[in-house]
Amino acid sequence: MQVLDSEFKPGLAGVVAAETKLSRVDGAIGELIIAGYPLEEIAQQASFEEVVYLLWRGERPSESALEKFTSALAQHRELPQATLTLLEQIAVQKKPAMDALRMAAGTLDLDQAAKPAEEAAIVILARLPTIVAAYHRLVNGERPIKPDSDLSHAANYLYMLTGQRPTKAQIKGMETYLNTVVDHGLNASTFTSRVIIATQTDMLSAVVGGIGALKGPLHGGAPGPALDMVFEIAVAERAEGYLREKIERGDRLMGFGHRVYKVRDPRADVLGAAAQKMFEEMADESPEGFELYKLALTVEEKALELLEEYKPGRKLQTNVEFYTALLLHGLGLPADLFSPTFAVSRAAGWMGHCFEQLETGRIIRPKARYVGEINSKW
Amino acid sequence: MQVLDSEFKPGLAGVVAAETKLSRVDGAIGELIIAGYPLEEIAQQASFEEVVYLLWRGERPSESALEKFTSALAQHRELPQATLTLLEQIAVQKKPAMDALRMAAGTLDLDQAAKPAEEAAIVILARLPTIVAAYHRLVNGERPIKPDSDLSHAANYLYMLTGQRPTKAQIKGMETYLNTVVDHGLNASTFTSRVIIATQTDMLSAVVGGIGALKGPLHGGAPGPALDMVFEIAVAERAEGYLREKIERGDRLMGFGHRVYKVRDPRADVLGAAAQKMFEEMADESPEGFELYKLALTVEEKALELLEEYKPGRKLQTNVEFYTALLLHGLGLPADLFSPTFAVSRAAGWMGHCFEQLETGRIIRPKARYVGEINSKW
To answer: Which residues touch A160 (CB under 8 Å, ≥6 apart)?
Structure first.
C-alpha cells in the first residue's frame, strides 16, 4: 500500500477530517454559524427541539413536523428500570456526575430493540436529561422525578431537577443555553463520535464515547469554576483589589480568553443577553440572584479593564464559561451540573455529525508511524 | 488562526496521526511487529501477561516484575456487584454480547476510587474477561463463575467460561490468540481510544469508546462468520462443488483476503500453527475437533486453489478471521464470543496507545470544513 502523504500531524492540527453543514466557527471575526444561521438568529428565538431538527435534517421543521418531532422526544424520556437501578448504585458511591452520566447513558437503550440511527438518536436525546436529573436528586438523597411529557425538552429538564414548574424566564434561559452550545465545529468529543460511528456501530456507542471525551480536562467548552471568582469577591468594592492581586500573582482569570476566539466569543454575547433578560425578569422573585448578576457584571468590567492594563494588546475577552456559569447558576444549577448539562445539549450536535459521517459511508482510519525497534529476539 | 494545510482528507486516509512503539503492520511483506518483536517471536513463547507488560512499559519484565504484574492483574478480576446486577438485567433482554460488554465495561470501576492511568488499566484489563464470561453464562441460564486468582489471565478466562480447568493445550491456544491480536497499528478502535484519552479523561472512557467502535461492521479484525462455510461444507468431498458455486455466484469467500495484507497475514500463520498444535494435542480427547480441523485445512487449500483459478493474480490469502474462528471454535467458544474475546485482548493494545498518547500531552483535534449556508434568517 503506497502512501504518499505521510507527514506526522501531531494532534491532527490543521488537518481537515470532515465536511459539515452543522456549524462553522470563525474565531477571527467572532462568528458561529449553526446550520446556516448565525447563532444570534436562533439562540433566543428557536426552541431546542427546532434547533435539533434543523441540525439533524438540515432544514427548519414545518409546524406539523415539529409537533411530531417534539412529541417523539417527549414520549421517550423515561429510563429503563435497569438504568435507574444503576444510578442508585452509582449514587451510593457518590461518583462525579459526568462519570454517572457516562455509565448510565451506556445502558439507556436496554429496553429498546436495535433501531435505525435516527430513531435511536431520539431515544438517546430524550433520555440524557432524565439521567442527569435523576442522578442529581439521588446523590442528594432525593427521589427522581418522573418526566412530564407535556413540557418542552428544556422545561422538563428543569422540572425533573427541581420538582418545580419552571417560569417562562427560566425556560427561556435554559433553552438559550442549550441552543448556544449545541454544536461547535469539530471539537474532540464531536470528532470522537464521528470516529466511532464511522465503523457503522450503533448511535449510543458514539454518544457514550463523546461523553467520555467531554469529561477530559483538555476538552474546552464545559464550564467549570468560572464563577468561583465572583463568589470569592462577594462585594463589588473588593473586585479591583482581588483581581489585581490575582493577575500580579500570575494566576489565570477563569472566564476570560479562549483558544479559538480572538475577538469576543459570540456565545458569550448570546448568553450574556439571555442572562440579563432572565435575571431582570426574575428580579422580584429572586432579588439576590439579581444582585449576583450585577456583581458579576462589575467583576467582568473590572477584569477586562485590568487585563488590558496588564496585558495590553492581548485582547482577552469574556468567554462562554463565564456567562454559562452565571446563567446556569441563576437557574439554580450547582457547578457539578454544568458539564452534564453541556452534554445534554452537545449530544444533539454529536448525533448530527454522526448522521453526516454515516452518509459518507467511510471509516475514519489515519495511520501511525512506527518508531520502535523491529527485530528483537524473545 | 492561520491554517496552511487544509486539504480535506476523507477518512484521514494516509494521514499520520500518531507515533507509536507498539506495533508496525507492513502489509506488503506480511509482517507484524509487536513492540520490537516480530509476531512469530512472541505469539507462542510469551504469556499474555508478558506481552501486555511489554506493550505498556516498553520492555520485557524481569521475573519479579512479571510476578508483581501478574498478581496485580489476578487480584482485580472480581466485578463490582452493580456490574453483575446490570449483566443480569442485560441477559434478560438477550442483548448481543458486544453490547453487553460495552454497557457493563462502562461500570467496572464503580467500586474504585479515581486512579492513575496505569493502575486503572490493570483493573480494566483484569475485569473485561470476567464480564464476557459472566454474561455468556447468564444469557445461557447459568450462574457466573468466580475468577480464580491462581490461574493465568488466559486460563482463568477459559475457566470462567466453562467451569472446567482448561488443559495446557487449551491455555496455550487461548494465550496465542490473545497475543496475536493484542495490537495492530492505528485501527479505528485504537484511534478512538487515543482521541478520547487525549482529552486527559479517564482510561475507562477510552476503553468503552474502543469497544463501541470495535462493534461496528466496518471495523476489521473481529472474527465473524469465517467458519460458517466450513460447517456448511461438512464433508471434504463437498468442498470443491460448494466453493465453485459460491465463487461463480459472485459471493465473497469469508476468511480470505485482507485490506492491508497483500501477502499472507502473519497472524494467520501464527494462529494456523497454534491451531494445528492444539488440535493435535487434543486429538485423543476431542477426535471430532481434529476432524473439523482437517476439514478446515481441506477447505482452505481448495479455496486458495479456486481463488487463484477464478481470480488469477489477486493473490487472495487466508486471513486472520479464518484461523481465529478455527482456534476459538476448537476452544469451545461459540461465534458470538469471538468479538468480545478479541476485545479482551485488544483492550491491552488500546490502553498501551493511551499511555503513549498521554505522554504527548496533546489533544487530537482536526478541523471540519463547513460547506453549508452562512446567512439564513430565522
So the answer is: A129, A130, A133, A134, A144, A145, A146, A147
Q: Does B91 touch chain A (CB under 8 A)?
A: no
SS3 A230: helix
A153 is catalytic: no
The set of cell numbers assigned to B164 is 472446567
Is residue A374 within 8 A of residue B33, CB to CB? The reply is: yes
| Interface membership of B4 toward A (CB under 8 Å) | yes
Contact residues on chain B for A208, CB-CB shorter than 8 A: 102, 106, 208-209, 212
Taking only the tens place, the pLDDT of each residue in B234-252 is: 999 999 999 999 999 998 8
Nearest to B188 among A21, A208, A365 (CB): A365
Residues A199, B217: C-beta atoms closer than 8 Å: yes
How far apart, in whole angstroms, are the C-alpha atoms of residue A145 and residue A167? 18
Partner-chain residue, chosen from B199, B371, B376, that has the shortest CB–CB distance to A216: B199
Q: Does the pLDDT of residue B224 top 80, yes or no? A: no
A-chain CB neighbours of B376 within 8 Å are 35-37, 41
The amino acid sitting at A146 is K
Q: State how far the Cα of A220 lies from the Cα of A222, in Å rounded to an integer.
A: 6
Q: B121, B365, B97, B66: which is closest to B224 by C-alpha? A: B97
Q: What is the ipTM of this complex?
A: 0.95
pLDDT at A43 over 50: yes
User: Does residue A4 belong to the interface with chain B, where contact is any CB pair within 8 Å?
Assistant: yes
CB contact under 8 A, B201 and A185: no
The predicted-structure confidence for B49-98, as pLDDT tens digits, reads as follows 999 999 999 999 999 999 999 999 999 999 999 999 999 999 999 999 99
- In the predicted structure, residue B137 carries a pLDDT above the cut 70: yes
The whole-angstrom separation of Cα B121 and Cα B193 is 13
User: How far apart, in Å, are the Cα atoms of A295 and each of A229, A238, A245, A317, B114?
Assistant: 11, 10, 18, 18, 36
A311 in reach of chain B (CB within 8 A): no
Residues of B in contact with A85 (CB under 8 A): 85-86, 89
> Per-residue pLDDT averaged across A3-14, rounded?
80
The residue among A327, A20, A33 whose CA lies nearest residue A169 is: A327
Residue A222 has pLDDT above 70, yes or no: no
Residue ranges of alpha helices (H) inside A33-116 are: 39-42, 48-57, 63-75, 81-92, 97-105
Nearest Cα to Cα of residue A363 among B188, B203, B161: B188
What is the set of domains in chain B, with CATH numbers?
A: 31-220+346-360 (1.10.580.10), 223-330 (1.10.230.10)
Quickly state the pLDDT bin for A258 (edges 50, 70, 90): confident
The Cα of A53 is separated from the nearest Cα of chain B by a number of Å equal to: 14
Task: Report the run of H or E that residue B161 belongs to, with start and end.
Answer: helix B153-162
Residue B258 falls in the annotated catalytic set = yes
Cα–Cα distance, B235 to B71 (Å, whole number): 46
Give me the mean pLDDT over the A32-41 stretch. 96
The C-alpha cell of B51 is what? 506481552
- Please give the grid coordinates belonging to residue A106: 451506556
Average pLDDT, chain A: 94
Q: To the nearest 10°, the Cα dihedral for B249, B253, B256, B258?
A: 80
User: At B370, which helix (H) or strand (E)?
Assistant: strand B367-370
C-alpha cell recorded at residue A252: 489565570
Report the pLDDT value the prediction gives residue A3, as an integer from 0 to 100. Answer: 46
Which residue in B has a C-alpha nearest to residue A45's C-alpha?
Answer: B378
- Cβ A118 vs Cβ A355: under 8 Å: yes
Q: Spell out which residues of chain B touch residue A192, defining contact as CB-CB under 8 Å.
A: 192, 195-196, 209
Kindly report the pTM of this predicted structure.
0.95
B178-193 b/e with 16+ CB inside 10 Å = b? bbbbbbbbbbbbbbbb
Backbone angles phi, psi at B210, to 5 degrees: -60, -40
